[in-house]
Write a structure and sequence with these properties.
Rossmann fold; 7-stranded mixed sheet; 7 helices; 7 strands; binds S-adenosylmethionine; alpha/beta
Length: 208
Amino acid sequence: MARNKTSKAWMQEHVNDPYVRKAQAEGMRSRAAYKLQQLAERDKLLKPGMTVVDLGAAPGGWSQVAGRAAGATGRVVAVDLLEMTPVAGVTFIQGDFGEDAVLAAVEQTIGGDGVDLVLSDMAPNISGVASVDQARSVGLAELALDFAVNHLKPQGNFLVKVFQGSGFEALVADIRSKFVQVMIRKPEASRSRSSEVYIVAKGLKVRR
Ligand SMILES: C[S@@+](CC[C@H](N)C(=O)[O-])C[C@H]1O[C@@H](n2cnc3c(N)ncnc32)[C@H](O)[C@@H]1O
């Protein structure tokens, strides 16, 4: 009964959410698309001609935003555990980004030229055990950071979602040691009750 009430309340909130409505009206795959749009506008992250890697891409809102911005001269490589309906101009690789074969497929697709921007909106399946979910969120962010450090062009940029909590400060310190400028952002489209924040890191300074 209580569960039923909760899911009704969730549905009510979902259909009344302005970003859900906007996404439906504008043909965006997710309300998350507006988080990237707001972050990218504020910190000037997307430009025509860029090579972008979008980690945790399904259902494809960020890929839509990145693909439009990169345009015909750029390219977007998207990865997710789940299937994703094709997005025009975006190459999709399905699999667990923590697996070597998936990393190899991404590397083969981007070739040797390097990446201008690595995006990660990866999030764990919520188990309900806060400490477990927190550790998984930080683990996914570290996986994305490792990829960014090894594949970004010098001066390349990195945007990653992570839950605030245990391991957050250490992750930020690690990112600060590798990028010139690091900002913690909470875009308006991110629900205030969610512990998620976005770390925007500009200007890769170290290549391992
Ligand atoms: C919040 S959703 C991303 C929404 C997306 N940015 C959009 O705008 O539509 C998080 C995604 O991360 C994916 N994910 C989580 N762990 C992953 C992993 N190890 N490898 C690849 N994708 C993963 C999930 O399957 C999920 O689709």
